[in-house]
Amino acid sequence: MKKAQIKKSVSALAMAAVIAVSLFGYGCGAKPASTSSDAGVSGDFTGTAKGFGGDVSVTLTLTDGEVADGTRLQIRTAGQSQEQTWLLRPVRALLTGLKNTTSGVQVRWGTVPHATGYRVYRKKSGETGWTRVQTITSGKTASWIDPNVSNGTQYAYTVRSVYGQHLSPSCPQKSKYRLTAPRMLTPKNSGKGRITVSWKVNSKASGYQVCYAGNSSFKDSHTVTVSGRNTLSKVLTYAEDFLDQAKLASVWATQKDGASLIARELFENATDINFFVGRAINPAHQNPNLPITFGIKQQLITSLADCLKQMGKHVRLSYF
After folding, report:
1. Pairwise CA distance, residues 86 & 62, whole Å
2. Which of 9, 56, 111, 196 could form a disulfide linkage to 190, CB 3.0–4.6 angstroms apart?
């Protein structure tokens, strides 16, 4: 006959505080801890009871076949006349972080004892149901990269521990916006001790971080943040969407903000468009203490011009 092990951890004033431990199944009455059951789970189950002189922390370690999922654990201590009850469920893994990587969103969680694997679930922002996107077959694996994600989309994730044929409850979810890394163009020496750094615009991003150092290992590196989603960036977002499925058309076609007004003129009324682009650096995009300037404005204009040309517009760029 298999036995469930009871591990007791008590404070200095609560020695021998545990009087009784009983297991209650699905309406089948009390069972001693040594009683076996046909349908079982594996894992560690924990709870804390108030005892005479201090708290009593009890961990019940189960092996498969000993106790049914959903069994209730009752503990009575020396300072209590009534037992406290816990519903036994397999220990769940907890998410420790989500991270954008070059190949997708990395999902990380903490491993749990006795788990034989994990199931990863995902849903997009606005969706109500979860979809299982990965099954992990090792209880020691603590991360997985989701490659099937789209730029600019928010995803929520949750994980369930697997114990043979049994599953733990879902852990609290975490969310992350998927953003692909911008492709950086070749930096240029612009003279006077400055370097111009430019990159392809990610229309879904609200800002960028530029990391620079005097060595290839990036030791003692510095980071500059270029933040703010300006009007021109919004117009570019509308233009790219217009060429795709025009899901944002209802926004720029009715709103009265600057980006929407420009989008309506460019997309619906204009046939010939001339851009006059100044080369001066926006102070908001420049740290005067750092030898770096940014070509974001030029990249925005170039990308917008390409979109307008695909719409059949005649576009001319002039720099001064």
Report:
1. 15
2. 196
- pLDDT exceeds cutoff 90 at 81: no
Question: How crowded is residue 27: how many other Cβ atoms within 10 Å of its Cβ?
Answer: 5
The residue behind tokens 């430019």 is 198
Helix axes 231-244, 296-310, angle to 10 degrees: 30
Q: What is the mean pLDDT of the chain?
A: 73
CA 133 distance to own-chain centroid: 14
Burial (0-12, 13-18, 19+ Cβ within 10 Å), 115: buried
Number of CB atoms found within 10 A of residue 67's CB: 28
Q: d(Cα 41, Cα 35) in Å, to the nearest integer?
A: 14
52 pLDDT higher than 50: no
Report strand pairing: 188-191 vs 154-163: unpaired
Rounded to 5 degrees, φ, ψ at 242 are -60, -35
Pairing type for strands 272-277 and 314-319 reads: parallel
Considering only residues 223 and 227, tell me which one the structure prediction assigns the higher pLDDT. 223
The pLDDT score that the predictor gives to residue 210 is 83
